[in-house]
Amino acid sequence: MTQVLIIGAGPAGLAAAEHALEAGAEVTVLDQADAPGGQYHRMPPETYATRHPRRWAELLGRCTWWPESTVWALENRKVHVLRGQPDGTGRRKHTIEPDALVLATGAHDRTLPFPGWQLPGVFTAGAAQALAKGERVAVGRRVLVAGAGPFLLPVAESLLQVEADVVAVMEANPATTVLKGWGFPTAKAGELARYALTLARHRVPYHFGRVVVEARGDDRVREVVTARVRADWSVVPGTERTYEVDAVCVGHGFTPQPELAVAAGCLLDNGFVRVGDDQRTTVTDVFAAGEITGIGGAEAAAAEGAVAGCAAAGGTLSRELRNRRDRARAFAKRLARAHPIGAAWPGWLHDNTIICRCEETTYGALKDAIGSGPHALKLGTRAGLGPCQGRICGPTVAELCGGAERHHRPIAQPIRLGELADPKETHP
User: Fold this and answer.
1) Same domain assignment for residues 240 and 261
2) pTM of the model
3) Residue 177 domain-assigned?
4) pLDDT-based confidence at residue 406 (cuts at 50, 70, 90)
5) For helices 125-135 and 152-161, angle between their N-to-C axes, nearest 10 degrees
6) Residue 415 C-alpha from the chain's centroid
7) Which pLDDT score, from 0 to 100, does residue 333 have?
8) Computed from CA positions of residues 340, 343, 344, 347, in that sequence, does the dihedral angle turn out positive or negative?
9) Judgement on whether residues 32 and 67 belong to the same structural domain of the protein
10) Which residues are CB-neighbours of 391 under 8 A, at least 6 positions away?
11) Using 50, 70 and 90 to split pLDDT, how confident is the model at 126?
């Protein structure tokens, strides 16, 4: 029986598990969280207990399910896992050597820097939604939501549900770009209409072609300055407007998390894992699905996961599975056209604007180091050498300095020196 290991229990990972089981495989699913579903299905623990989909319970009951499990390294088909709370002690070490591996590690928010973005009270859109959905906590009383992409809409809705006053939602791209990219009619029209009605009911204005260019405050954010931008995201002088807020949520799309794929030897295309028609990567018996292959949302992730799980288990891919995946990929392409990152966004920056928050590296320091080579740039500015290891600032530094983002990290997740040195392994 084929042994399939699935890393990630979001929509892509759960779909992969379901279809790998149907194809007759022995399946292990692991995730860093203590419950399945990923960010998309996040909810408070008490709500989760009553609404936990029976389908998930039955599905994971047929698998080996490892919650609170972190893959810290991957080498030569060996998957090194630490089980236990990420910030806890006494985590147990395991090594798994599956017949096939499905990577469904997802993505995290990308936030373009602007003056003041390091202030307390400036949140990524995903963090604000996680607190609202998972803990029923609002990040502030008066909140502005800004950036690019349709994800801003559910973030605003989640904030409204926890009684935050959302002063505005701002999409950086002009309406013409967004509408042309999406195209109508679309299967998402009903969902978009629901969000529009929610904003209208709470009298939340939605602005196209407007961005946050500065956050101000002493101990925390007190106000934000927004401005109208052209299609390339260059600021239109004289259009600045200031809002009094105690929180701002910003998201400019998503950045995939391909570190494990790179560790496995998989090739990337523009930062995303390269896959074939059956979601197979460039490495034999390693498959990838979801946001690490292209940003398309939960439905697209699940469609890719279904194909990956079936193929990893050696099953026969049906025309229905392929067609659903192809439609999802087409939607992801439309999404990218509708919400691009404008090339002129660095015009918002000042020389003292912090780019790498871990090491407090400024834009001026990066400009001075350009041309010195990637190794000297990193050592000279320390950008990317902090606790996040470039996961947040990496794409931005690469774009500003004209280099390629580096994803190869022998140790993919934080691990204590004692854990690293301890040779003991625990049998599952």
Assistant:
1) no
2) 0.90
3) yes
4) low
5) 40
6) 21
7) 87
8) positive
9) yes
10) 108, 255, 257
11) very high
